[in-house]
């Protein structure tokens, strides 16, 4: 193990082991659910092979986590046409929910002993293909770990199917579960199972039998003041970026002919800036998927920082009803109104801010999370932006702050992150 577990992580994984390795890890976002699952795998050598099932945008994050914490290599499955020689009988195989059904025959030949279901609340619909495929792959596994930051849903009916996969004997009858906990009512069109009943009893049963639950507020004394988490993202149209990287001038002639003269005068800087912008544009589908997962998993607010207007506006428009925008195009009065709305309105959960316009000059202490969609050239700008939430640049001790760095894999962004880190040191 390359990483030392925190006390709450060790305590909860030991409880998972007492439950026989079939449990629901319900830690708040950024408390290390993936690390907890890997810790269980490392402590139990008979948990091999391992299959991780997760949303597509999180596959490379799992690969990084396994390498970082355990030094383990992973196999990532892609596409709906299974290919040969990709599924080792030892180690970790990572597959996303959308292609799990296509890979089932190949995966079942592995006889996985540990299946990790990341964001397992996505399996709430027991009739969906992903839910049925997940149940199939877990049927013969010795250990099954479900991971979710929001395990206790407003509609208990959506909890039954993940539980039936993780611990089939806990609530064996869906109908009995719905009668007891879903306030089942017969309507003209059939049974309405959208309600909730006997929730304290349900919570008590889950905590006693299957759920380890941790909120960030419960373990603040164990967390570092600022945590920096790199989230690797894939590009769409990867060939477009690679072409730009390999032959910038030719690419510029095809895509930006009006800029060719200035580009040739300062090719290196222009090339770097164009590649940074292009990488940001091409990773946006993955970044928006990550943001969707964030909003589903936690009720906490988040500040998104970027440098290019189109990147910032794409995020803002994707969640316009629950976000505000701060960039150079608005007045100082409008900026202050946006800040107040973000801090005070419960429904407004996202602030999309230009790192210059929103990264200095105001206090967001109490907002626990921020994410960088793009990186500036100077580490000071990153630290100032983090200081909005943590208050460290003002001598204010805020709660533990998590800074997510949404970096396009194998691009200039990863090199820029390394450069910023070296400058910061």
Describe what you observe in this structure:
The chain has 425 residues and is of the alpha/beta class. Helix content is 44%, strand content 17%. It contains 17 helices and 15 strands. A 7-stranded parallel β-sheet has the order 3-4-2-5-6-1-9, sandwiched between helices. Strands 10-15-14-11-13-12 form a 6-stranded parallel β-sheet, sandwiched between helices. Helix 1 (7-18) crosses helix 2 (33-43), helix 4 packs parallel to helix 5 (129-138) and helix 9 runs antiparallel to helix 12 (267-282). The radius of gyration is 23 Å and the shape is globular.
Write a brief caption for the model.
With 425 residues, the chain is α/β, with parallel strands linked by helices.
Keywords:
425 residues; alpha/beta; 7-stranded parallel beta sheet; 6-stranded parallel beta sheet; 17 helices
| Largest sheet: spatial strand order | 3-4-2-5-6-1-9
Structural Rg: 23 Å
- Number of DSSP strands? 15
By secondary-structure content and strand pairing, the structural class works out as alpha/beta
Distance between the termini: 26 Å
Helical percent range?
40-55%
Q: How many alpha or pi helices?
A: 17
User: What value does the average pLDDT take?
Assistant: 87
User: What fraction of the residues are assigned to beta strands by DSSP?
Assistant: 15-25%
Give unreliable regions as ranges.
392-397
Shape: globular
How does the SSE layout of this entry go?
Blueprint: H1 7-18, E1 22-27, H2 33-43, E2 50-54, H3 59-70, E3 74-76, E4 92-96, H4 97-110, E5 114-118, H5 129-138, E6 143-147, H6 157-166, H7 174-181, E7 185-187, E8 190-192, H8 199-209, E9 211-214, E10 226-233, H9 238-246, H10 248-255, H11 260-265, H12 267-282, H13 284-297, E11 302-306, H14 309-318, E12 323-326, H15 332-344, E13 350-354, E14 369-372, H16 379-390, E15 401-408, H17 412-424
Parallel strand pairs: 1-6, 1-9, 2-4, 2-5, 3-4, 5-6, 10-15, 11-13, 11-14, 12-13, 14-15
Antiparallel strand pairs: 7-8
Helix pairs in contact: 1-2, 2-3, 4-5, 5-6, 9-10, 9-12
């Amino acid at each position: 193990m390359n990483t030392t577990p925190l006390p709450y992580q060790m305590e909860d994984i030991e409880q998972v082991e007492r439950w026989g390795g079939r449990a629901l890890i319900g830690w708040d976002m950024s408390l290390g659910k993936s690390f907890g699952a890997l810790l269980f795998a490392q402590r139990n050598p008979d948990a091999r092979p391992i299959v991780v099932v997760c949303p597509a945008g999180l596959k490379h994050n799992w690969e990084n986590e396994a390498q970082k914490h355990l030094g383990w290599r992973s196999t990532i499955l892609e596409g709906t046409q299974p290919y040969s020689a990709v599924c080792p009988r030892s180690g970790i195989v990572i597959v996303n929910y959308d292609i799990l059904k296509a890979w089932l025959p190949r995966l079942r030949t592995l006889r996985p002993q540990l299946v990790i279901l990341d964001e397992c609340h996505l399996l709430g619909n027991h009739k969906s293909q992903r839910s049925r495929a997940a149940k199939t792959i877990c049927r013969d596994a010795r250990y099954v770990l479900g991971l979710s930051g929001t395990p206790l849903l407003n509609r208990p009916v959506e909890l039954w199917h993940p539980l039936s996969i993780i611990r089939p004997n806990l609530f064996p009858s869906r109908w009995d579960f719905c009668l007891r906990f879903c306030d089942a009512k017969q309507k003209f069109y059939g049974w309405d199972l959208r309600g909730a009943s006997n929730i304290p009893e349900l919570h008590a049963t889950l905590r006693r039998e299957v759920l380890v639950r941790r909120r960030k507020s419960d373990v603040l004394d164990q967390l570092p003041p600022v945590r920096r988490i790199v989230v690797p993202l894939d590009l769409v149209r990867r060939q477009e970026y690679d072409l730009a990287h390999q032959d910038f001038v030719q690419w510029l002639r095809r895509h930006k002919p009006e800029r060719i003269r200035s580009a040739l005068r300062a090719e290196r800087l222009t090339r770097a800036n164009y590649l940074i912008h292009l990488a940001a544009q091409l990773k946006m589908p993955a970044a928006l998927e990550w943001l969707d997962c964030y909003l589903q998993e936690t009720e906490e607010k988040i500040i998104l920082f970027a440098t290019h207007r189109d990147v910032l506006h794409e995020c803002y428009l994707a969640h316009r009803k629950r976000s505000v925008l701060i960039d150079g195009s608005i007045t100082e009065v409008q900026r202050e109104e946006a800040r107040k709305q973000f801090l005070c309105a419960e429904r407004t959960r996202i602030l999309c801010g230009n790192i210059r316009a929103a990264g200095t000059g105001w206090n967001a202490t109490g907002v626990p999370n921020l994410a960088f969609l793009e990186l500036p050239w100077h580490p000071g700008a990153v630290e100032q932006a983090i200081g909005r939430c943590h208050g460290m640049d003002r001598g204010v001790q805020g709660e533990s702050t998590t800074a997510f760095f949404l970096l396009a894999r194998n691009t200039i962004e990863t090199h820029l992150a390394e450069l910023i880190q070296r400058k910061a040191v």
